[in-house]
Amino acid sequence: MRSKLVVGNWKMNGSRAANATLLSGIVEGIDGAKAACAVCVPAPYLFQCEQLLQGSPVAWGAQDVSCQAPGAFTGEVCAAMLADFGCRYVIVGHSERRAYHGESNELVARKAQAALAAGLTPIVCVGETLAEREEGATAAIVGAQLDAVLELIGKEAVAQIVVAYEPVWAIGTGKTATPEMAQEVHAGLRAQLRTCNAEAADGVKILYGGSMKPDNARELMAQPDIDGGLIGGAALKAADFLAIIRAA
Ligand code: PEP
Predict the structure, then answer these.
(1) Ligand 1 neighbours by CB, cut-off 6 Å
(2) Total domain count for the chain?
(3) Which tens digit of pLDDT belongs to each residue from 171-184?
(4) With CB atoms counted within 10 Å of each terminal CB, which end of the chain scores lower, N or C?
C-alpha cells in the first residue's frame, strides 16, 4: 500500500516572523502523525526552513525551478540551489505558473527533468480548467500534461516523481472535486503511468489539490488512488494543516 503525503503550497505568502510561528506550530503538533508531510515555500525562506525543520519529520521544498543549469538567467533559481538548501521537493507546472507565466507542457517537463537531475522529487501538477471540464476534455488535458513529462524523463524516472491532480476550478475557490470525480481522474493518471512503467506505477503518489480542507480531506484521501494532498490556503494555519495530515 502507498503511504500518504501531505504537502503545503504556501504560494507567495509568508514573512520570517509568520513562518517561524507556523513552522513551530506544525513541528510541535506533528508527533505521532503517520503521513509524510512537507511545505513548499517561497525561495527566500528556504534557508529558514532548513534551520527550523532540519531533523524534524517535516520536509521542505520550493514552488518552481528553472529548467536551466547555473548561468546567465537573471531572476531564476536552479535545481542545484534548491538541493543546496536541503529541499526534497519542488512543485512544477502549478496552474498559476501555467496561467500567469505561460508555462507550456514542454517547459514543465524540462523543469521536472532538471529537478530529478539534482536529486529532487518534482511534484508534477496537472489539471483542467472549468471550460475544459465542461467540454469533456479533462482526461485529454491532464493526459497531455503528464505525457509531456513522462516522455522527457523516461520510464526509469517514473518512480521518482509525485503527481498532483489539481482541477484549476477548485484551486482557492472553495469548490472541491467530489471524491468520485477526483478518483476517476487519479485512476486515469495511474493507468497512464502504468503504460509508461508498469512496475513503478503502483508506487507513485498521486496527490489531490483544490480546496482540500480538514472537513473534506478524509473522504478524498480514502479513495484508492488519492495518496495525499497538495494544500494551498489550509496550509497557512498550523491547526488546519495538521488536521489534514491526521486525516491522511
Ligand atoms: C494549490 O494552490 O495548490 C491549492 C490546492 O490551493 P487551495 O488548497 O487553496 O485550493
Answers:
(1) 9, 11, 166, 171-172, 209-212, 230-234
(2) 1
(3) 999 888 999 999 99
(4) N
- Please write the tens of the pLDDT for every residue from 121-155: 999 999 999 999 999 999 999 999 999 999 999 99
Nearest to 152 by CA among 114, 109, 91: 109
Is residue 54 within 8 Å of 86, Cβ to Cβ? Answer: yes
Q: What is the mean pLDDT of the chain?
A: 97
Protein residue with least CA distance to atom 2, ligand 1: 232
- Residue 100 per-residue DSSP state: H
How far the first Cα of the chain sits from its last, in Å, is 13
- Supply the residue whose CA is at minimum distance from atom 1 of ligand 1: 232
Q: Residue 29 carries which side chain, given as an amino acid letter?
A: G
- Which atom number of ligand 1 is nearest to the Cα of residue 173? 10
Nearest-angstrom CA–CA distance, 156 and 204: 13
Q: Which residues are catalytic?
A: 94, 166
Which letter does DSSP use for residue 6 in this model?
E
Domain extent at residue 221? 5-247
pTM for the model stands at: 0.98
